[in-house]
Amino acid sequence: MFVETTICREPAAPVDTAAAYAWVYFCEENLSGPGKAGIKKMPLSYQEFKEQASLLCGIDLSLYKSQQLDRRIKSLMNLWQVKDYDEYLQVLKTDPQRFQIFLKKLTINVSEFFRNPECYFYLWEKVIPELLQKNPNPKIWSAGCATGAEPYSVAIILKELQALYSAEILATDVDGQVLKRAREGVYGLNEVKSLPQELLERYFREEKGYYHLSPEIKKRVNFQRHNLLLDPFPTGLDLILCRNVVIYFAEEAKSDLYQKFYGSLRDGGYLLVGGTEPLLGYKQLGFETVRYSFYKKRTAGAL
Predict the structure, then answer these.
(1) How many whole angstroms separate alpha carbon 223 and alpha carbon 181?
(2) What is the spatial distance between Cα 8 and Cα 107, in angstroms, rounded to a whole number?
(3) Which strand (E) or helix (H) includes residue 54?
């Protein structure tokens, strides 16, 4: 499996690594020791808070768009009636529930089956059949997959094309909690509303207002925790989907991600991005545009 050598795998035991790291960090910073007695700490500045919060979360907050990030951080500060950044950091270190809320606030998890259906029909009718002709065992990566609707949508298309068992589908996200929900494969009506009715009936079981995905589809998607800003990227890919994720990143981080996506794709591979995330410098990166939101990696001879 291509993913085993290129992505950091999750621990075998269900460990809340973020909470564990937060507790270690708290102990290191707050336990008394030689030289600490009598020293009065200066109040944390906003920049210092972001730096220490980055360590807690394992996410470099300096790579996020500043206005959006500032708004989210300060909205929780107001909601929790935190008086300063020292208290804010202390809350994140000592309250696992609020730490998870903070993390979710930073990592937006909007997910829906066949979101923007025309993109999925283009995948179904044009992109995936073309990839299957060149490589009967395509490797696909859904980067920033949230609760799994995107990679599962691709798996459904592959099943319809009778190629589900020949493809490898990797789905990653930085948030371990949403990955847990993705593996469960249970969705509300709003998350499946864009699916064609025949696919909804074929691949879901409705129970008490919730839609349970077919086990056959679920077991064909490999979910792993992965930080787009820090972790190595898989290689030899035929298709990458990364939609409505990089919009939250600063321009420097975006440029770095797109270069890494390019390096991860085979010649002729496709990158699908969100409708509000056009690659303005796609030619310089080595892509050609084939349709709105779809970019194709040019072969070496065409560069």
Answers:
(1) 11
(2) 19
(3) helix 46-57
Q: What beta strand segments (E) does the chain contain?
A: 139-143, 168-173, 186-187, 204-207, 210-213, 221-225, 237-242, 265-273, 287-291, 294-297
Instruction: In whole angstroms, give the CA distance from residue 53 to residue 60.
Output: 9
Q: φ and ψ at 253, to 5 degrees?
A: -65, -40
| Environment class of 194 (CB within 10 Å of its CB; exposed 0-12, middle 13-18, buried 19+) | middle
The per-residue b/e assignment along 150-163, b for 16 or more CB within 10 angstroms, e otherwise, is bbbbbbbbbbeeeb
Sign of CA dihedral 170, 229, 9, 92: negative
Q: What angle do CA 276, 54, 280 make, to 5 degrees?
A: 25
CA atoms within 13 A on the CB side of 78: 6
CATH code, 117-302: 3.40.50.150
pLDDT in tens, 138-188: 999 999 999 999 999 999 999 999 999 999 999 999 888 889 999 999 999
Q: Mind listing the pLDDT tens digit for each residue in 245-297?
A: 877 777 888 889 999 999 999 999 999 998 777 888 899 999 999 998 999 99
- Residue range 13-42: average pLDDT? 49
DSSP β-bridge partners for residue 172: 143, 224
Looking up tokens 């075998």, which residue turns up? Answer: 12
Q: How confident is the model at residue 61 (pLDDT cuts 50, 70, 90)?
A: confident
Q: Indicate the angle between helix axes 96-106 and 46-57, nearest 10 degrees.
A: 100
Q: How many CB atoms lie within 10 A of CB 21?
A: 15
Domain ranges of the chain: 2-106, 117-302
Contact predicate 106/76, CB 8 Å? no
